[in-house]
Specification:
Blueprint lengths: L8 H13 L2 H5 L3 E3 L2 E5 H8 L3 H10 L9 E3 L2 H10 L14 E4 H10 L3 H57 L13
Antiparallel strand pairs: 1-2, 2-4, 3-4
């Protein structure tokens, strides 16, 4: 999964606080990429909040107006089957008659307003910090990719010229007439 990009000492303090509650990698491993979005499933969130999935979903249903379609969506049969096939922790869903809900980052943030326990608030804060760090990592990765592309453009012409010269030297040597020998002769 994505590793954290820690920008400064203040971020490190926040991450250490998060680790005291739940290990960062444990939360990171629960973030999935579905339908082009980073999401967390109701099952995983319930485990982190230490509530039953059924109770978490009840609170969401009671507060439907807080969870528009871009905050939460239900997985379909095919998506659920892929999860069950690829992730051991979802074997429990194999024979389930209902499909799990996926919460986007905004949906996870909204959960803290419907789950009122101290644990829910603390877990939400930890999750939000990890989402922010993932965004920082992705943006720095994108910036690096742009810089590499710029360097490739700049040096591609020079590298092509160097490769042409090397090819010509090899060709000339194969013809037995290396034109300008470079170096010292021994003996």
């Amino acid at each position: 999964m994505v590793k954290l990009l820690v920008a400064g000492s203040n971020d490190m303090r926040k991450i250490k606080q998060t680790k005291n509650l739940i290990p960062v990698d444990r939360i990171e491993s629960k973030i999935l990429y579905l339908r082009g979005q980073k999401v967390m499933l109701d099952y995983d969130l319930a485990v982190l909040y230490e509530v039953q999935t059924k109770r978490l979903n009840e609170q969401v249903k009671r507060n439907k107006e807080r969870f528009p379609d871009d905050f939460i969506f239900r997985l379909n049969k095919a998506e659920t089957e892929v999860l069950v096939a690829n992730c051991d922790r979802f074997k429990i869903l194999k024979h389930s008659s209902s499909y799990p809900f996926a919460f986007t980052e905004q949906g996870v943030a909204m959960l803290s307003s419907v789950l009122r326990s101290k644990r829910a608030v603390e877990v939400n804060i930890a999750i939000m910090r990890i989402f922010v760090n993932i965004r920082k990592f992705v943006s720095s990765y994108e910036g690096l990719a742009i810089k590499i592309a710029e360097l490739e453009k700049k040096y591609d012409v020079k590298i092509v010229k160097i490769m042409d010269i090397i090819d010509q030297l090899i060709k000339d040597k194969d013809d037995g007439k290396l034109k300008n020998e470079i170096g010292f002769k021994v003996g």
